Amino acid sequence: MSTPNASSVAPPEGGRRGLFRRRPAVGTPAAAARDRRRSKQRRRLANVAGLMAALVLTGVGYSALAPGASAADDPTGNPSNAVEAGRELYTRSCITCHGSNLEGIPGRGPSLIGVGEAAVYFQVHTGRMPLVRQEAQAPERPPIFSEEEIDQLMAYIQENGGGPTLPSGDLRAGDLAEGGELFRLNCAQCHNFAGEGGALSSGKRAPSLREASDMVIYSAMLSGPENMPVFGDNQLSPDEKRSIINYVQTLKAQADPGGAGIGRVGPVAEGLVIWVVGIGALLFGIFWMGTKA
Amino acid sequence: MATNTVPGPRVGQPTSLAGKAAFEVDDRLIVAGPVRRTLNKVFPDHWSFLLGEIALYSFIVLLLSGTWLTFFYDASMKEVIYDGTYAPLRGIEMSAAYESTLNISFDVRGGLLIRQMHHWAALLFVASIVVHLLRIFFTGAFRRPRETNWFIGVTLLVLAMLEGFAGYTLPDDLLSGGGLRIFSAVFLSIPVIGTWVYFTVFGGDFPGEVIIGRLYILHVLIIPAILLGLIALHLLILVKQKHTQFPGAGRTEHNVVGNRLFPTFAAKATGLLFIVVGLCAALGGLVQINPIWLLGPYNPAQVTAGSQPDWYIGFVDGGARIFPPWEIVLWGYHIPPVFWGALGLPGLMFGALALYPVLERVLTKDTASHHLLQRPRDVPVRTSLGAMAVTAYVVLWISGGNDLIADKFDLSLNAMIWFGRIGFLTLPPIAYWATYRICIGLERHDREVLEHGIETGVIRRLPSGEFIEVHQPLGPVDEHGHGQLAYGGASVPKKMNQVGGARRAIRGFFKPIEEPAEVQRQAEIEARGLESEQASRRELTGSGRPSEGGRPSEGGRPQDPRD
Prior knowledge:
By secondary structure, chain A is an all-alpha fold. Chain A contains 13 helices and two strands. Chain B has helices spanning about 15-30, 30-40, 50-70, 95-105, 110-140, 145-170, 175-190, 195-200, 210-240, 260-285, 290-295, 315-320, 335-365, 380-400, 400-410, 415-450, 515-535; strands at about 40-45, 80, 95, 260, 330, 335, 455-460, 465-470. In chain B, about 55% of the residues lie in helices and about 5% in strands. By secondary structure, chain B is mostly helical.
């Protein structure tokens, strides 16, 4: 389903990731900061061909070049520009499965009418889209598109399909304990009590929330990707969503007071520890005592 | 005793303070005889005989830590609002049981450590019982006259599992409640009486208000009391019947070769007690177990992904997971699939386990008393049956955690279920066949070594051009070079080093505790002594070592392997 253009994006992507790995991480390790840093490099080394083609096709003169490049930082700066660039990206990488009018293609991809920019943010930002191949569930990967390109895609989908938009403000501005209660009620049955994820049927899975940023969690609740139900604002109010995010991120940052967390997945890991470490150590111990005859 | 009441020193009277005290005690209680007999009791020495002791010592850890926990635990399902140290739960409605467990974890000094030690010790208790049981099974230690103790042991295992399940439920967290819900469904699945059993146990609709209190009394009083009584009985019978031993030099059906209880065995046992307590403490302090604060209080509307029981109930869960969704109707009564997986299968398993000694006695018609153990290879059928049962258990066990395995290893959960179903039916027979062949192979090799000697690895070319391997016989040989030793059920040396082919190994488990030079000097002295004293006799060591160019011995004459 990848067009030649999209595949031409991939090789430099790998190279950039290698470069990124060699550089020691500085500053906060938070996911948001990492995303920002990654996207900055991506912007620096962006797919020049793609950007140039977009610019030429939109017919914007050289005078518009500077504002166009900063459109990512301020998506409202030149909306029609971004929409046009988004259309170009869509035509290049998404149209095969989602159709020329966002209507979706049976057996390939769902309609994007009404999913809104929240869905685009989640799917493209976590690298789930564009899809490499059809399988049980799109796996999480490093994103293919730059922040700027994602913004353009979001603008295009929002303009033509409509749907939920991304929130603004502090996404953790909610009550911690209430968030916990809502998390256990709505999320834990698939994502596990500590957000470590779990298996669903036929190779599908509820992913771990360990790497998820605030906005990724929020947009997932808004758009209900893959097998996840949509938690619209009529089901979980924006405040409740923020409470849940607050709880999830607090849990993730929280140390394990009891020692090694062993994955926070419950008794299976504990059983493994008692048999491998506990019984293992004791067998060694009694074998040692046996040689002292 | 009246004659002893006369004060004053007499011949044979103790003079030290301790001696006098002991004398006075014995004067009143008359315990010297029994104590002497007990202290002089001989226990055979083998590392695998310590497995049951691990279970005993983890039970001691459980009793001590559990008693401490009762000081702070509140077995009540009364609804309270949490206002404690753990911020993410503040203001949440929960049961008093859960709140008190949170307080033990966060507000009681040392509470979390003791709670975690208790839980790890519980996992260790059941695990060591299982390992002990496997040792008993595979060495035939359950045979007459020890069937009673085997039966008590199986009862102890079942009780330990029930005890563990009750303890798992007490914190009343999300995982406990999930387990309780499954337990209630298992009750309901019992044909005919299920509903009544359920209401008797829960006293009303799920979860009701009494179940935690009832499980608490079961957990801290009834089951521990029975466990304690049965463990005492288990040990008394063991002492009365004497411990089994592996066959070997000087060991017969009528003696016990080993160390006296005091001081050697007592020292070892105390050391092992410290190792077990230390391990529980280390795990309790270093590895988090059952983080109830992450799980949250139980609410029947909530459940978490990866809800699992502790490992020892895992196979029951696995059985329930892989049993096909067949709604079977028998005599007009509907029997749900969970009944077969969660009650039928374990019932069958433990029934077969408990009755195995009787079954084997009837099928083999071996009704003699046995005090010598068997090597697993010498009883291929039993060993293979055991391997088959263990394989089936492991498949069920894996199936109990199949969702986590599917998630962590990127597999399909459905594929894991089908692996469980197909594996449960096909892998045990394969395990039986493979184990049987391995046993037969090992037995044949033992016989081969006894007949032809140890393979030295030295290849010799005969004048005719034929290559043969030089064998070192273990005993006298006949005119064909065949050994005449009978197999005694003990380990047969398979390498030259085991019969002194190499210099004696330097002693020391972690690091050498001997000087190599000193050992070598002693070995040389010994070798010289042997040469002078036993020059005419057959020898396994010294000049006969093929590595030194000598011939193994007269018996080790190059032989035709086709003989």
